[in-house]
């Protein structure tokens, strides 16, 4: 999913996707430990998605305060 597509999501959708991504990272880590995961490159990709979601949520959180400073 591209950043432009992520920005179109509502805040609640972002929170849901963030929770899903965190769950996916946990599942991937368990699969690595048990030897079931062959494509380990999915872990850093998912972690980057988590960072994108968190960044956008933080931007939205700070946006009202920034407008009030003007």
From TrEMBL:
GO terms for biological process: translation. Transmembrane segments: none annotated. Belongs to the universal ribosomal protein uL29 family. This is Large ribosomal subunit protein uL29. PANTHER family: 60S RIBOSOMAL PROTEIN L35/50S RIBOSOMAL PROTEIN L29, LARGE RIBOSOMAL SUBUNIT PROTEIN UL29C. It comes from Leptolinea tardivitalis. Keywords: Ribonucleoprotein, Ribosomal protein. One of its GO terms (cellular component) is cytosolic large ribosomal subunit. GO terms for molecular function: structural constituent of ribosome. Gene3D superfamilies: 1.10.287.310. Pfam families: Ribosomal_L29. NCBIfam families: L29 (TIGR00012). HAMAP family: Ribosomal_uL29 (MF_00374). Coiled coil: none annotated.
């Amino acid at each position: 999913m591209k950043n432009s597509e992520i920005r179109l999501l509502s805040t609640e959708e972002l929170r849901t996707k963030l929770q899903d991504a965190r769950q996916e990272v946990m599942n991937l880590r368990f699969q690595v430990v048990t030897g079931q995961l062959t494509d380990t490159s999915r872990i850093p990709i998912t972690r980057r998605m988590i960072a994108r979601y968190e960044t956008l949520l933080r931007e939205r959180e700070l946006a009202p305060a920034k407008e009030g400073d003007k």
